[in-house]
Design brief:
Helices cover about 35% and strands about 30% of the residues. The chain is α/β, with parallel strands linked by helices and about 240 residues long.
Length: about 240
C-alpha cells in the first residue's frame, strides 16, 4: 500500500528527496513574489508528511491557524509548532471532510501526483476564499521517463493545460515546468534512490532484474530525469 511505502521510507526521505527539496524552495520563493502579504489567516497544507515543507513555510509566513494533513499519522512531528494543527485523512476524501472549511492559502509540495488529481484540483477552489492563493508543486509528463520506458510503470501526470482548465475559477499567477537530471554511479544506486525517497511508483511485486539494471546503464547512463510543475493561482 502507498501508506506503508511512505511510512517505511519516512526516515530516509529528507536525505534522498533531492528534487522535492528544491521544489519546496522554489515554491516558497514564488509564493513570496505573488503574495501581497506574509501573514495568512487560515492556511491548509496537504500531503505534509513529517512537516518538511511545513517548517520552511513557517519560516517565511505567519498564520493565525495552519492545518496540515497527511494520509499517515505524523501528528507527533507537529507537536510544539505554534498555531499548527495536524489532521490525518486521505486527501481524496477532502470534499466530504473539508466541505465546511475555507482557507486563504492552500499549498502542497510534491503530493498531488499521488492523488485523484483532477478531482482534488477541482475541489480546492471551493474551499479557497476570494482572493486566496493556491500554491502547489507536482510533477510533469516527462517525470522519470526512463523508468516508464524501461519498466513500463509510473504515475499518470497532468499537462499544463489541464491545470489551466481545471483551475478556471482562479487566475493563474504562475505555471511552469523544470527538468532535473540526477546522475548516479551505477544503475543500482539510481533504483535505490527511488526506493529511499519513497516516490518510485514501482508497483508491488516488481522484480528488479540484472537485465533491467544493465539496460538502464546502457541506455540512460545511470541518469534519472525529474520534471517538476509549479502552479500558483488566486481565486477571483
Amino acid at each position: 500500500m502507498l501508506t506503508q511505502r511512505f511510512l517505511k521510507r519516512a526516515q530516509s526521505y529528507q536525505n534522498h528527496a533531492i528534487v522535492q527539496n528544491k521544489m519546496a524552495s522554489e515554491l516558497i520563493a514564488l509564493l513570496r513574489q505573488v503574495s501581497h502579504t506574509t501573514n495568512f489567516e487560515r492556511g491548509f497544507e496537504f500531503g505534509a508528511a513529517q512537516g518538511e515543507f511545513s517548517k520552511i513555510l513557517l519560516e517565511h509566513f505567519t498564520f493565525q491557524s495552519l492545518l496540515c494533513n497527511d494520509i499517515n499519522n505524523y501528528a507527533q512531528s507537529f507537536v510544539g509548532l505554534t498555531k499548527v494543527d495536524f489532521a490525518c485523512f486521505d486527501m481524496n476524501d477532502a470534499p466530504k471532510i473539508l466541505k465546511n472549511f475555507t482557507f486563504d492559502l492552500i499549498t502542497s509540495n510534491a503530493c498531488l501526483q499521488w492523488l485523484k488529481q483532477r478531482e482534488v484540483l477541482s475541489f480546492l477552489p471551493s474551499i479557497l476564499e476570494s482572493g486566496g492563493i493556491l500554491a502547489l508543486s507536482s510533477f510533469g509528463k516527462r517525470n522519470l521517463w526512463q523508468i516508464k520506458q524501461i519498466c513500463n510503470v509510473g504515475l499518470g501526470y497532468l499537462e499544463l493545460e489541464d491545470y489551466q482548465n481545471i483551475l478556471a475559477p482562479c487566475k493563474i499567477l504562475h505555471l511552469s515546468t523544470q527538468q532535473y537530471n540526477l546522475q548516479f554511479s551505477n544503475a543500482l544506486e539510481a533504483f535505490r534512490h527511488l526506493s529511499l525517497s519513497g516516490v518510485n511508483a514501482i508497483e508491488k511485486g516488481f522484480f528488479l532484474s540484472k537485465k533491467i539494471l544493465q539496460e538502464f546503464e546502457a541506455r540512460y547512463n545511470n541518469t534519472l530525469t525529474y520534471e517538476s510543475v509549479l502552479v500558483l493561482a488566486r481565486k477571483y
